[in-house]
Amino acid sequence: MYINGNWAAAADNASFEVLNPADGSVITQVPDGDGAAARAAIDAAAEAFPAWRQTTAYQRAEFLMRAHALMLERQEALARVLTEEQGKPLRAAMTEVRYAADFLAWFAEEAKRVYGEVIPSARADQRFIVLHQPVGVVAAITPWNYPISMITRKLGPALAAGCTVVLKPAEATPLTAIETFKLFEDAGLPPGVVNLVTAGDPRPIGDEFVTNPKVRKLTFTGSTAVGKMLAGRAAANMKRVSCELGGHAPFIVLADADPEHAAKGLQLVKFLNTGQACISPNRIYVHRGVLDGFLDTLTGRVARMRAGSGLEDGVTIGPLVNQAAVDKVDNQVRDAVGHGAEVLCGGGPLTEGDLDKGFFYAPTVLNGVSQEMLIYREETFGPVAAVVPFEDEAEVLAMANDTHYGLAAYIYSQNLSKAMRLFEGLEFGIVGINDINPASAAAPFGGMKDSGIGREGSREGIHEYLETKVGGFSI
Ligand code: NAP
């Protein structure tokens, strides 16, 4: 753990194992922090805050740019650690590291653009001046599926704003977090500005984060259930909260779309990170007029995917995070088949050769998915493309919006008017239109409904870490 500028063990040297999901082997052990460790980290962050907030935006930007340069310099080593503990193919891990570095550079720049306002008053003798100031100590909790970019998407803007931070990364992926903090240390961040607490049991850390009066803001990325619970408790203590939670993205292919292009896009985005992405398409609505061409292209591409350790050349799809994830995906597939869905490829766990040592599931295409199936409602978080054929374009918007989630959605259409109407009508925070990658450090990322509160990235991202203060001056 990294607390007040020192690398620290847990009390009684307690530790937990980090596993490689490709073969179930133990990579190493890391400190198993408890509530007292979280408290010490919060104390350090609180102590470092007054000096850090006094630095200029230009000084903070310099630290962030140094961290950015180090991240790019070390991208290959970081990607290896990430692949080993998380599973995604090395190339995808490199892409994630560069995406993570983007947030450092973007918020280094945004630090300099935290403008205030001068507001005219109705009184001749009065002026209003608005300032934006750092909220204070930020507690951050991140998930395992994007172990490095979820860290910089929070720490980049928090540090740029002048906040100090305590991070608890996911139990499954603490090693990437540790490497990231070494990089912050090497970038010269003063002691206490960033603190890292690793833990096998997240609950005592979460308890401390939501109850400690020194924490002014909680930022969480993870499941909707945990996010709601923590956000509720933090709100009860009047802490600022932002949450990036689960999704159930519709992917809509209209009759006028190019089915091959849409199928290629779907295959790329659906199987990214073995389907373990919050913006992964979960309901793929395809107009019957283009269904055959779409399914042919999709099935051909999916059948050619090669599963294995992300460190092996030629592997295009890695393992799931653990056995529970394999079981959840398999349960959804069996339920769908039981209710009449057709398996076009895949359809079960992969166990041949060495794959049985890891947590592999065959990339799967299901056709004929319908509303009574679990997969139509539950986030899958696995490599299953669930295709829902439809006929009436007038109904597809209502079907797509019929979920309590509201993170990402995708539209494929060559008709600008139809695409625009869908774009405007979809109750989702991020919409790809003939595009499968609507995420960038420059663009706001976040969800509506049960998918979260607040936005990360973009010029909005830094405001999650700023308070607004008005001064009324009588002159
Ligand atoms: P999760 O179980 O909610 O865990 C997320 C983080 O919360 C982990 O660090 C976890 O620690 C911690 N946590 C769990 N219970 C806690 C508690 N009682 N107190 C404090 N912390 C607690 O979610 P996950 O399975 O890791 O992540 C997958 C979910 O994240 C999916 O639903 C996905 O859609 C969502 N996600 C959303 C976005 C987005 O931007 N909207 C991005 C990525 C992922 P442990 O690891 O120790 O359990």
Commentary on this structure:
- The structure is a single chain.
- By secondary structure, this protein is an alpha/beta fold.
- The protein folds into 2 domains: 2-245 and 449-474, Aldehyde Dehydrogenase, Chain A, domain 1 (3-Layer(aba) Sandwich), CATH 3.40.605.10; 249-433, Aldehyde Dehydrogenase, Chain A, domain 2, CATH 3.40.309.
- Helix content is 38%, strand content 22%.
- The chain has 14 helices and 22 strands.
- It has helices spanning 35-54, 57-73, 75-86, 90-110, 149-161, 174-186, 203-211, 224-236, 259-270, 291-303, 323-338, 393-401, 416-425, 458-461, and strands at residues 2-3, 6-7, 15-19, 26-31, 117-120, 126-134, 137-141, 164-168, 194-196, 215-221, 240-244, 249-253, 281-287, 342-345, 364-367, 384-390, 405-406, 408-412, 430-433, 448-449, 452-453, 466-474.
- The protein has a 7-stranded mixed beta sheet, with helices on both faces. A 6-stranded mixed beta sheet has the order 9-8-7-10-11-21, with helices on both faces. Strands 5-6-22 form a 3-stranded antiparallel beta sheet, with no helix packed on it.
- Helix 9 links the parallel strand 12 (249-253) and strand 13.
- Helix 9 (259-270) crosses helix 10.
- It is globular.
- The model has no long low-confidence stretch (mean pLDDT 98).
- It binds NADP nicotinamide-adenine-dinucleotide phosphate (NAP).
- Residues 141-146, 150, 168, 170-172, 202-203, 205-206, 221-223, 226, 230, 244-247, 278, 379, 407, 447, 452 line the site of NADP nicotinamide-adenine-dinucleotide phosphate.
